[in-house]
Amino acid sequence: MSIFIARILIVAASVTHASASCAYGTHLSPRAEGAPIEVKTFGYTGAIGPLNWAALDGGSANVLCATGKNQSPINMVDGVFKTLTAADVKLQINDMPEGTEFENLGTTVEVVSKGGTLEVGGKTYDFKQFHFHLPSEHLDNGTSLAMEMHMVFQTPEKDIAVIGVFVDLDNGVAASAPRADSHLSAIVQLPPSSLATAAGTSSALLETVFSQVAKIASPGSVVETKPLVMSELVNILLAGSFQSYSGSLTTPPCSEGVMWLVSTQKLKIQTATFKKVRSVIGFNARYLQNTPGFNNLLAVGAQSAVAAKAAAAVPAAPAVKI
Amino acid sequence: MSIFIARILIVAASVTHASASCAYGTHLSPRAEGAPIEVKTFGYTGAIGPLNWAALDGGSANVLCATGKNQSPINMVDGVFKTLTAADVKLQINDMPEGTEFENLGTTVEVVSKGGTLEVGGKTYDFKQFHFHLPSEHLDNGTSLAMEMHMVFQTPEKDIAVIGVFVDLDNGVAASAPRADSHLSAIVQLPPSSLATAAGTSSALLETVFSQVAKIASPGSVVETKPLVMSELVNILLAGSFQSYSGSLTTPPCSEGVMWLVSTQKLKIQTATFKKVRSVIGFNARYLQNTPGFNNLLAVGAQSAVAAKAAAAVPAAPAVKI
């Protein structure tokens, strides 16, 4: 059973108490170490799902989810983004030799940062956390990937930048051949250089993080990761470029003005690892939004429904047979 | 590049000509063999995507996409379906020793049936075709699967039944160990008995069909499959049970009264095969619909937006910072 089913049970009696006022609720600010984990009160199915996020707080905090014209995720096709090269970006992320907290927020699994900065467009953002969506939220030129990692950065003035990284599946047969009998610990110990150069190789960082995902199967649970070598990730990202556009948070309150940097580099994971993560996350991708600058698809859809209903008039639309 | 990007280019100038009046356009009726393939005029992104399907024909043919209260796909959780056992269902599908047509409709890849019947609930449906969605459209108790196969049946009176089968990824390392160096042809030749019993084994049927998916990368293209042993599939399905509910087509015109039978048996494919299919399909899953009997989520979402906008009043909702 996925965490989201469990969440629906938890949330069923308290959905009207959902708060969207806290920055923590946006996946932006990691909680203080040791503080209780606040399980989210939005979801991905039915009445607490993405099409109804605007209603969840009973006020207007989430209104942009239903009205914003620069919402995320989107289909990453030519024309909607501009390309930033590694030279346009200064990225530094602290290694975490002592590990860090890996927690289940009910809506995603998230790794708390131990510091780092992103300098882009004249601003310096602090690295807060990274979390995962399954399947990918953005489409890579029309294609859905297995997962997507979101690395969240914020300035002291609360401006937000997110690096999106597609997570693809290792090819299995081909890629696993040289290490068919190796254990996860051996993979984790692969030198960084082999990761950055071997296209078919699973990400050591992701395999290390996800090796403990079964320990946070329940919303609100947390585990300490093994050491995380973040410089490996930085090297991989800076070997590619970034597809940049101005979008939104993909979770309530769907705040806009978020600087998106979708990496052209993909991280790979083993299929077996993917399935372990899937057994915890289940499904947590918001539906695709309209091209930036165009009307929110909920408004477009509502208008279509009104027009189609009017056209249907009498007799009523055929219900059963076509 | 996925077929959907190509489709957007094709459709861009002709979206107002979209027709939803033909049964063929619903994925129900296979075309006559040799007849030209009609590339679909709906899509999965932006203004031709699922939130705006009701508007695509300029009339009311697709109105149920935006107003129907028994729409598909849904989250398959206890309470929304009733279980039918193999004893409740009589399923017979003709083998296709001479192969059959495998075609790219722009919105999916589809295999044309050479006959078969499904007897359930006192009706006899004829087997028309099967096609694929990526990722899965239904959720399996909260979990998104790699793909979903839809086997479409229809009575002479045009009543529709669809068997949905989740397609999961073969575990790669574990499952591939005994056949690390085998070629696809060897896998296809596995005897049916090993398929029905070996949990980690790829589906011979799917590997056979998909071995040619690269040949139909363009919308409107078609290829003849190798021989298809459909009895293997029937045996697998009848070894499990069916989660049944009354829903809709997951494509325009979103007609309701469709009898869904979601199999508890999953078919597996190799990760490498999945990636080949993905490079053609890209993404073609409609967003999750509301629990059967509850309001259409587009109506719910529109109402939420109106309420949230009213609550926002003046001053305007925060746009950039949170």
UniProtKB/TrEMBL annotation, chains A, B:
Record domain Alpha-carbonic anhydrase: where: 40-314
Signal peptide: 1-20
Gene Ontology molecular functions: carbonate dehydratase activity; zinc ion binding
InterPro entries the record matches: Alpha_CA_prokaryot-like, CA_dom, CA_dom_sf, Carbonic_anhydrase_a-class
EC number: 4.2.1.1
Domain of life of the source: Eukaryota
Record-linked SMART domains: Carb_anhydrase
Top-tier EC class: lyase
Keyword terms of this UniProt record: Lyase, Metal-binding, Signal, Zinc
Family classification: Belongs to the alpha-carbonic anhydrase family.
Protein name as it appears in the record: carbonic anhydrase
Origin species: Pseudogymnoascus destructans (strain ATCC MYA-4855 / 20631-21)
Taxonomic path: Eukaryota, Fungi, Dikarya, Ascomycota, Pezizomycotina
